[in-house]
Specification:
The longest helix is centred in the middle third of the chain and has 18 residues. The chain has 4 helices and 4 strands. It starts with 10 loop residues before the first helix and ends in a 7-residue tail after the last strand. The protein is an alpha+beta fold and 117 residues long.
């Protein structure tokens, strides 16, 4: 990690940056059917069980609903860096299938050992 982008980073931090893990970030946004009368039911009885299944399988590492008044409704972090593989999982989400949410997938990295408290 001696690239010019890191020329001012102290060596101890460079060492940690070199050990970063790669992930795929999911951003869920309001879909065309988000305001449908069945949205809450779909989210609670279909979407949540599906996401918790992926969590139990170790495929989905983190999920965070967004509470602010924005089109972004949630984010998720997948263990896989293969966007095609992650996209197949996301496309099977009942809330995606029913147009409650749309999504974007982004490649990202995180520091090893990071946790939420």
């Amino acid at each position: 990690m001696s690239a010019p982008n890191f020329e001012f980073v102290p060596p101890a931090i460079l060492q940690k940056l070199a050990a970063m893990n790669r992930y795929t970030l999911l951003i869920l946004t309001k879909g065309e059917n988000y305001d449908h009368e069945d949205t809450r039911k779909i989210i609670q009885s279909e979407h949540l069980p599906y996401t918790f299944k992926l969590r139990e399988e170790g495929k989905l590492l983190l999920t965070m609903p967004v509470n602010d008044d924005t089109t972004i409704r949630a984010i998720g972090i997948y263990a896989s860096t293969d966007k095609a593989e992650v996209e197949e999982m996301v496309k099977q989400d009942p809330a995606i299938i029913k147009g409650v949410f749309t999504y974007e997938l982004l490649s990202t990295v995180g520091l090893k050992g990071d946790t939420l408290i």
